[in-house]
Amino acid sequence: MSPSERYRPWFVFAGGGTGGHLCPALAIVHALRQLDDGVDVSFLCTDRPIDRRILGEAGVEAIPQGVRPFSTRPWRWPGFLMAWRTAIARCRSLFRQRRPAVVIGAGGYGSDPPVRAALAEGIPTAILNPDLVPGRANQRLGQRVDRIFAQWPGTAEYFPGAGGFRAWGCPVRAGFLSPREELRQSGFARFGLQPHLRTLLTTGASQGARTINEAMIALASELARLGGWQVLHLSGPPDVERVQAAYQAAGLHATVLAFTDAMPEAMAVADLAISRAGASTLAELTAIGLPSILMPYPFHRDEHQLRNARVLADAGAARIVRDRIATAENAAALRSAFLPLARDASRLSAMAEAARRLGRPDAARRISAELLDISHCRGAIRSAS
């Protein structure tokens, strides 16, 4: 370690494996660097390719841990435990070479070993908890860390007696903080959309959602007959051609993409969204103030996306359609949810206002300031030199 490194506060984020874990953490990284350009940041991540890609694009050091997700198959438990213990030992060794200012668990199975290592070494710790219901790793760690940064106040009941609980929102990327009208104008040009038409954004997260895609294919002709609407559909890679062909056959103006990195523009240009209910997505919808029809992912045992969605629905910002898997059932349910909204501009406006009231676009800045406050950086770094 060079002499200059000894005096640069080192913030270590831990976790990854999905964009939902990485993006809020990277929003904090961006805010940290704005508040103090003298900080160093590393990410102890998983071995999944998405981590290296997203972290590399963000200019953040990625250190894969070799940790494995927990399996319900008993014969895999020995390998899981060995990898988990090895990861903790490696993290402790790493932290003794250079002491972090704070270690922040970003969620997922990759967050547990570094945070546990930091606790054992007496290093300040924090966890991010964007979902209403915390996952297993966060539930285990919540009673021991210095700060819990949650998206919604209702999460407090899952951390009884925990100190340092903050319901400050889920950090969103800096692009979502730009003026919406600027984002809209950019979005119309980027996506080839018509400004005089209202826009339905359909998205199933980064990999798409086959059941949503199938339902929209079934509704394409009806959407075309309705008139006045166009579609921006993020289908995921496998279904791009099928979805595009259905819209073209129906005569509906639509742009279909596998995915886009320009989600601020995609949401800003939309008048209504059909979406899954991942925590980061809901934070983005509320930061923009976009009304939504939410189809929570149906295969999670704890139905945590459904519980997330209810926060928006209870506030009047969204409607929930349960994903029934069967195309005909989903198409009928989406039709019943969408048509009344498509014909009622005042209702869409009220839902948009309700979404804006839930939004916490300042979350990344507030969390970053608190991390700097609790880190006691200079003393922590010097004590390890």
Can you offer a commentary on this structure?
- The chain has helices at 3-6, 19-35, 49-58, 77-97, 112-120, 136-141, 180-191, 210-226, 240-250, 263-269, 279-288, 304-314, 327-342, 345-358, 363-375, 377-384, and strands at 10-14, 40-45, 61-64, 102-105, 125-129, 147-150, 165-167, 198-203, 229-234, 254-257, 272-275, 292-294, 318-320.
- It has 385 residues and is an alpha/beta fold.
- The protein folds into two domains: 3-172 and 362-384, Rossmann fold, CATH 3.40.50.2000; 175-358, 3-Layer(aba) Sandwich (Rossmann fold), CATH 3.40.50.
- A seven-stranded parallel β-sheet has the order 3-2-1-4-5-6-7, sandwiched between helices. A six-stranded parallel β-sheet has the order 10-9-8-11-12-13, with helices on both faces.
- The radius of gyration is 22 Å and the shape is globular.
- The protein starts with a helix and ends with a helix.
- The model is unreliable at 377-385 (pLDDT under 50).
Tell me briefly what this model is.
This protein has helices at 3-6, 19-35, 49-58, 77-97, 112-120, 136-141, 180-191, 210-226, 240-250, 263-269, 279-288, 304-314, 327-342, 345-358, 363-375, 377-384, and strands at 10-14, 40-45, 61-64, 102-105, 125-129, 147-150, 165-167, 198-203, 229-234, 254-257, 272-275, 292-294, 318-320. It is an alpha/beta fold.
Radius of gyration: 22 Å
| CATH topology-level fold name of the largest domain | Rossmann fold
Largest sheet, in brief, is: 7 strands, parallel
Order of helix and strand elements from N to C terminus: HEHEHEHEHEHEEHEHEHEHEHEHEHHHH
Q: Indicate how many domains the architecture comprises.
A: 2
Poorly predicted runs are 377-385
